[in-house]
Amino acid sequence: MSYIEQLIEILSKEQVSTNPTMLEQHSHDEGYHASSLPDVVVFPKTKDEVSKVVAFANEQKVPVVPFGLGTSLEGHVIPYNGGISLDLSLMNQILDVRNSDFLVKVQPGVTRSQLNKELKKYGLFFSVDPGADATLGGMAATNASGTTSVKYGIMRDQVRDLEVVLASGEIIHTGGMSAKSSSGYHLNGLMVGSEGTLGVITELTLRVYGIPESIMAARATFPDVQAAVDAVTTILTSGVPIARIELVDDRSIHQVNTYNELQYEEKPTLFLEFHGNEAGLAQDVEFTKEIVTDLGCSDIQFESDTKAQTQLWEVRHNLAYSFIHGFPGKKMMVTDVSLPLTELAGAILDARKAMDAVQLDGALLGHVGDGNYHALLMIDMNNVNEVQKAKEVNEHIVSYALQRGGTCTGEHGVGIGKSAYQQREHGPAYEVMKAIKLALDPNGILNPGKIFVD
């Protein structure tokens, strides 16, 4: 009896699929990395089913690759060793909203928008916004962040507890519901960002926030990238409680204008958002206006209307899609580094020089409030020369960041795309990570080939 037939006996025929279309859907993510088919796709409904599947795979030494919605960009969910693609989309229940504790308990297949729709009834929201409507399990696995991280923090900051199935099939909890603890190792921090290489997340307890009384959005235009980044630094050091602060370069604005039929001034632009009460917000807005004007801002537009704010942020979130639609037949490579704020402007300018030197079109943008920026490169995957140029630009951008105390990935995660840089970034700590992996997954069945190149 094949191991797939045994899986059907463990679960049911309806939960185990070898349909070619289903296999293809689980062979890739939204990045540019080569696809690879799993042997089978399995759809567990409970933590106990996950435990049974993983324990069986461990006995048989069959790879297991957790799968959410496939919105990742660094090849995390691609099963390069075949095996089981463990699709957690049926585990999509919001289990408990503890509104007075500002906590929520969810299954891993719950999406960000699904959770926020439910939380709105309680006057609450979940803060991490990576742009894509990803699953919360996937967001924890990759330690996602996004536009609001400058105020509320990244995914790791929101996790109070995880229920995790280890390679042996054992189920553990990594934390609790208290706001702080000095007890034992920080297993939440270990599991968040581990990309399914140490265990499969089957439940999350997350921190949530009260919806602000007032929200104000703004768009500010600058003569150059240096002036825009200087404005970011000054706003942050001035104590303005900014909720989002995003930079897009002039090339980005040109593409935005073309795709959305807008007429924004084509210069480096900051998208900002303020959260607070009405009186405090008015002061913050005026103070920010003074700061950006002193730093050469040529125009700043504020939006207090909810519809107008939504449209403004849709422009930012849809930037990648404006390039995808503008370059039919090409794939997008998205770089992802983070640096100290003092190094950010130099990094962005250097990245533009590197892109121009090899004549690759694309944009520069980022969550500059926490030093994270991206280069979007449009490449023809059938053009070997173009693919090589893109890899060289990515290598250059990463090397620049690492030489200045930065990281090779600010939010997308390692997967296979950034695995080559792990030893360079972490030094001897890389061997410590490998030792942890070996201790928790001695047979190497959990998402093999990710994070570690050896």
Automatic annotation (TrEMBL):
Question: Do you know which InterPro entries this protein is assigned to?
Answer: FAD-bd_oxidored_4_C (IPR004113), FAD-bd_PCMH (IPR016166), FAD-bd_PCMH-like_sf (IPR036318), FAD-bd_PCMH_sub2 (IPR016169), FAD-linked_Oxase-like_C (IPR016164), Oxid_FAD_bind_N (IPR006094), Vanillyl_alc_oxidase_C-sub2 (IPR016171)
**What are the EC numbers?**
1.1.2.4
Note the Pfam families from the entry: FAD-oxidase_C (PF02913), FAD_binding_4 (PF01565)
Q: Which cofactor does it need?
A: FAD
Q: Does the keyword tRNA processing apply?
A: no
Where would one find coiled-coil regions in this protein?
none
Q: Which family does it belong to?
A: Belongs to the FAD-binding oxidoreductase/transferase type 4 family.
Q: What is this protein called?
A: D-lactate dehydrogenase (cytochrome)
The species is Halalkalibacter alkalisediminis
Upper taxonomic classification of the species?
Answer: Bacteria, Bacillati, Bacillota, Bacilli, Bacillales
